[in-house]
Amino acid sequence: MTIVSLAMVPVCLFAQQSIDLSGEWAFQTDPQETGIAGKAFLKPLADKILLPASMPERLKGDIVTADTEWTGSIYDSTYYLSPSMAKYRQEGNVKFPFFLTPARYYKGLAWYSKDVKVPSAWKGRRVVLFLERAHIQTTLWVDGKLVGSEASLNTPHEYDITAYVKPGSTHHLAISINNTLKPEYNPGKDSHSVSDQTQGNWNGIVGKMELRSTPKAYFSDIQIYPDIHAKTAEVKMKIQSEKALSGKVTLSAEAYNTDAKHSVSPVTASVAVKAGETEFSMTLPMGDGMLLWDEFTPNLYQLSAQLATSAGKDDQQIRFGMREFTIEGKYFYINGRKTLLRGTVENCCFPNTGYAPMDLDSWLRVFEICRAYGLNHMRYHSYCPPEAAFEAADMVGFYLQPEGPAWANHGVRLGEGEPVDEYLMRETDRMEHYYGNSPSYCLLSSGNEPAGNYTAWQNNFVQQWIARDPRRVYTGSTGWGAGGQYTISFARGLTWKTQRPESLTDYARNVAFSRGPFLSHETGQWCVFPDFNEIRKYTGVNKALNFEIFKEILEENDLGERGHDFFMASGKLQALMYKHEIEKHLRTDGYAGFQLLSLNDYSGQGSALVGVTDVFFDTKEYLSIDEWRRFCNTTVPLARMEKFVFTNADTLWAEMQAAHFGAEPLKGVEVTYKITNQYRKVLASGTLGKKDLEIGNCQPLGLITWPLNSITKAGKFNLEVAIAGTEFVNDWDFWVYPEKVEPQAKDVVVKETLDEEAEEVLRKGGKVLLLAAGKITYGDEIKQSFTPVFWNTSWFKMKAPHTTGIWLNDRHPVFKSFPTDYHSDIQWWELINNAQPMLMADFPKGFVPMVYTIDTWFLSRKCGMMFEANVLGGKIIVTSMDLTSNPEVRIVARQLYASVLDYMNSDAFRPESTLEVKTIRDLYTKVAGAVDMGTKDAPDELKNPTRTGGM
After folding, report:
1. Is the pTM of this model over 0.85?
2. The sheet that has 325-328: what strands, in order across it?
3. Which of 9, 436, 492, 672 could make a disulfide contact with 949, Cβ separation 3.0–4.6 Å?
4. 726, exposed or middle or buried, with CB in 10 Å at 0-12, 13-18, 19+?
């Protein structure tokens, strides 16, 4: 496929004439909104600004203080109340922990003006001011005369100024912009179209800024409706004219971004143009050489449309693709082929600009990275991207779900007569006008998670759009239950908080109620510890001062050296969670796809570090793209396994399946497998035979069984399954322990508490193992499960769990007969899930536990699950992990218990640190107390916990 820059072929190119208005404009803020009464639209303004830009980009506005009034919810008030945060509220050191901090901030009215000469050649023509994206409400005056106002968050602001200008003359353009949320366009303060949680509530104009000229009889709208079965494209046009005219319309099309050449012969028709608006339709035969558009072959056409009248010729070139996006049963179909949407949510997180990119190259980079990660779909959370995003998605072959710009929940409600009802209908109408011809525009939602009497409103929204435009499919809103032609709701998460890890279960029962396709709502949200090396990347508008706070907290808690360790270890756990959750989606029959929240980090709402890439879409070092593609791709081998931890008396049992959503079925492919040990030595291998893979999931590949009785020592192993001759391969780690293990205490005294007998043993130079599970009080408020923090503890008001896994020195001799990596892995589930960490705030500086618990980065309390020390002249190990209950079933705990005792009975048991006995006693008596978030309000999902799904 040959990629041609769509900068050459925009969706609606005003090829007639245009004047670029970028450059220096006069500028002035108007916080008291006195400019209209004072006729600022006629007067010189006090400052200058380079446009296109936002005010923060040009360092216009106020210096941020602790009293800055943000646009967005803050569910954690500890920043404003906690003494530990006081230093970050001081002038010169203002930093916020819950989102990025802009260098400047302004919310209110601002004025922009420029003198522009209209060319003499435009005499007798229409003149339009085009502002590609302004935030939020613009009002235009020309030479002091009011032209009108626009408040679209999703589409350009256009003003017909023909009646206000005289060709050959210079005119004074004055634009006021207000980014305060007014009732008439308030979509909800946390909507990603406006919120400081994401792009920021900026004031300014970005993208193209032009004066454009057309004949006075012109195309006001052209929409192209492909019919791939008839091999035609119906072209519906609206023609606007001052007066009645006779005209001729000529249409032609040509494929331009593919090696397969295809030109569509011109068709011509006469049209009687009325005064006002004329609707006119023509059919364009595409012919037998017609090329289809989809994710595998994103073939694009350029439609050339010409309207010739006595008023002149209006020429437009429009990008479109021949495709059909439909629903059949529980799945989406593209051109009649079943597809599965593997998506991410784009949250308008672009820190260096503070708004979505307006250029093509930036979006091409985003989509190519997403494609590299095996994705084919993107949802835009409560906003719609600019034209460049649709251009890039059309080129790459990516299925988009833009949304109305509303999260009608926080500050506004749907279906109760508020202005947001009409505003959303108007905004989605404008989206169709500007972006409706893009083949990537496949799905539409009115917005995110509404409140109010929204069911009736959504039903009306969907029915109107189904009747109006069959080119895409519709849902009422994203997140809250069923509605529309497809459903986006909660069937997500893993049950590992209460059940041991397995890969047998799926989401079939969760999605059964949906009559049409079901997409998962905001899958994942598994957190990772911050990477402080990222700070240097924030070179633009928004700075990662939140990361600076987190780094300083870590250092203050004697954990400064652990930052990168915690990042890597928590990242490995995050990758494990995403692997198993995505595989659970893929092995669910009737599940139409998932929408991650998200592939990249989310910089707001408490700093939600949920991405396997950073916010800039750069890969994080703990997980490569190739590793991710093993479980997220067009074709994925899948293993249904009852468990991942065995004894050597067991038999490995894995029922193999495949999810295949490629361009074509795979015929006669050979499926191979191999089992390796931790040193990558192949212990077994074979083939499951040759298979035919149709389009779909839950396709059987065969059964793999392998007796484990040849394994004599505890070890980590790996099962890998591949489709020979393709890139498609997947693998699963599993652990095998000896069936018979008898931990030997020998001269180690094992106790649950540090009683008098234990202390006496230590005074005599002896060895004590304290099994303190269920006994510790110091750290009781730190809730740990095997699964990591969900979204983040700030936004979710310290909702458990509070931790993001464990970090340990896997080379430590205590693990000699307990094979482990430096991070949480499935075998650790038995030991740390719902187990109590020990708070080590009072331990000596520099003390290093054997197993760290990685706390939420907002607190970074020093805590762990096991440590060793010299105490009272003796040596001690203390663990809050349960190592001894139900040893016949808890084989991992049994193995670690044996390994700990073996270590304590060896010459290697030489603790480096010394503790006062009181420090250990305090673990059983002290209470730190729960964190007070200071704010009564809570996120929607905490108000209705059933919506969080199984975690």
Report:
1. yes
2. 325-328, 331-334, 337-339
3. 492
4. middle
